[in-house]
């Protein structure tokens, strides 16, 4: 019997718990952390993501690095990212760790200076994430689907061509491939846009943000 894959999720709010539910439904184990200790998080997860394992933040990358695809999903509001210690994932002990940037920039929120800087230069916000979490391979994904919709949109029982398409972008081809495989397992049709520089269309106000998409919709913006 093969060992269950595990994905880490950094952030246990509405988006993080929605991601956890679709992964658990697909048979993927989930470790979750927040600013609360695991014991305090346990009751919250029993209600909103039953089956997810609460862990300390510095543990969130451990099991996925040895029992899974080596993927941690960043699901923390961007205005709160200064509370996230980059060492939680930068020092995970695996140079191949993939960090999925599922965050979004909202115009009415004040951002950390290190994240605002690339945005001021008209660059995708993931450039700031990649600089901050420099020992991971950053892939932008899962940010352009509302947490209200993700469970209904993810359907692994459908043939690939009938599924909702989702876009992703990342500079490392192998990292993109790992994230694409995860997205297929949970029930989407993943389509690569290219490098992080191509991620503008899936940011808020972009043409692919919060829309039901087919593969051809995304391929129009691929680089």
Short description:
With 223 residues, the protein is of the alpha/beta class.
Describe what this molecule looks like in 3D.
The chain is α/β, with parallel strands linked by helices. The chain has a domain at 6-158: NAD(P)-binding Rossmann-like Domain (Rossmann fold), CATH 3.40.50. It is built from nine helices and eight strands. It has an eight-stranded mixed β-sheet with strand order 3-2-1-4-5-6-7-8, sandwiched between helices. Strand 2 (29-33), helix 2 (38-48) and strand 3 form a beta-alpha-beta unit. Helix 5 packs across helix 6 (126-132). The longest helix has 14 residues, at 173-186. The radius of gyration is 16 Å and the shape is globular. The N and C termini lie far apart (40 Å). InterPro entries: NAD(P)-bd_dom_sf, P5C_Rdtase_cat_N, STEAP_metalloreductase. GO terms for molecular function: oxidoreductase activity. Residues 7-104 form the Pyrroline-5-carboxylate reductase catalytic N-terminal domain. It holds the Pfam family F420_oxidored. Keywords: Oxidoreductase.
Summarize the helices and strands and which ones pair or pack:
Elements: E1 6-10, H1 14-25, E2 29-33, H2 38-48, E3 53-54, H3 62-66, E4 71-74, H4 87-90, E5 98-101, H5 113-120, H6 126-132, E6 137-141, H7 150-153, E7 165-170, H8 173-186, E8 189-194, H9 215-219
Parallel strand pairs: 1-2, 1-4, 2-3, 4-5, 5-6, 7-8
Antiparallel strand pairs: 6-7
Helix pairs in contact: 5-6
- Oligomeric form of this entry? single chain
What is the string of helix and strand elements? EHEHEHEHEHHEHEHEH
The largest sheet is: 8 strands, mixed
Question: How are the strands ordered across the major sheet?
Answer: 3-2-1-4-5-6-7-8
The backbone outline, from C-alpha atoms, is globular
What is the name of the CATH class of the domain at 6-158? Answer: Alpha Beta
How many helical elements? 9
SSE-based structural type: alpha/beta
Please tell me the overall pLDDT. Answer: 94
Helix content: 25-40%
CATH domain fold name of the domain at 6-158:
Rossmann fold
Distance between the termini: 40 Å
CA-based gyration radius: 16 Å
